[in-house]
Amino acid sequence: QTCALPICHRLGVSVNVSGRQLDDDVNLHADVADAVADSGLEPGLLTIEITETMLMRDAASAARRLADLKILGVRIAIDDFGTGYSSLGYLQQFPVDALKIDRSFISNISRNPESAALIHTMIQLGKTLGIETLAEGIEDQTQLLGLLSEQCDSGQGFLLARPLTPAALEELVNLTPQFAATV
Fold this sequence. Notes:
The protein is of the alpha/beta class. It has helices at 19-23, 25-39, 52-57, 59-71, 103-106, 113-129, 141-149, 166-175, 177-181, and strands at residues 2-4, 7-9, 13-16, 46-51, 75-81, 98-101, 132-135, 154-155.
């Protein structure tokens, strides 16, 4: 949460989890619970990102660990979605809030009909399952327009913003009308 008078914004944060962390039954849950408690962050503003490949190493165990994390109230996102060759049936087992569509699909959306078709399918899958879709690696206007026409829920990439210092982020948030509208 950033607060600069007169406006206060609720901003979320995403944290990538490694395969080794995901494999650790006890410490992952405790580490996330401690981080949420120590930071004062509302649990729903924390998104834990896990790659599709890591989830598929031991899907049943991963599903149990993610369910454990969901009890804390945090969000779960599958990062690099579409690259891990998972069975779509597993999506029903995982308590997932968001699918982050891998940048390799986004980069080819306007040049490759197959990439555009896969993006369309992933976004529709997310909508059908009630899972947010987020496009990674949006770098040009054509990509953004293609994703908007598919009704992708959100996106990230250099077209939207480069990495920012905390001061630059606060300035951007306070100067951008859509942030003020969400207060």
